[in-house]
Prior knowledge:
Elements lengths: L2 H19 L12 E11 L4 E5 L4 E13 L4 E14 L5 E11 L4 E12 L9 E10 L13 E8 L8 E9 L1
Amino acid sequence: MTIRMLLLTMLFSMCSVKAISAEPDPNRPNRFDTEFVYESRVSIDPQRVTVGQSKHGERGIVWITGGTVKGPKIQANVISGGGDWQLGRPDGVRDLEAKYALKTDDGYVILVNNKALIDRRPTPDNPENDYVRSVLSFDAPIDSPYEWMNKSIFLGTVELADNFAEDPAVIIRVWELL
């Protein structure tokens, strides 16, 4: 290695250390701000289609049959016909990828892609506790009141509706990462 390359390597290393340590507390409570976008009740077909074991794990599909979306800047219905493609991984975690569409009260159609992860994480207070978090992306029409949804990252939670046994649905809450 030449002297010049050695000096450049040392300089780069010093700059990297400064860049990494420039933040006094990377875990500060206000690292990310969010804004609530909506809560949806998504109805599902309780008859999960099981594809079976694949090279990655057990695959299945849950069909989406409808639902509602209510939030400060969006009111919509979930269009029937979407699906939630699921993968039961060998480590016990379940990966989900739901693709479906919303029709807003003012007539726009927005495509939704919701990728979620479910992991059983029992606690002393709740032995049935599940960690369920998702990242959503939207494909909204340009020049519509919902174009802003194309330009942000969204985080969500997913849980079974309280009356799931009588009316199979999940509750999805969504926040925009600011």
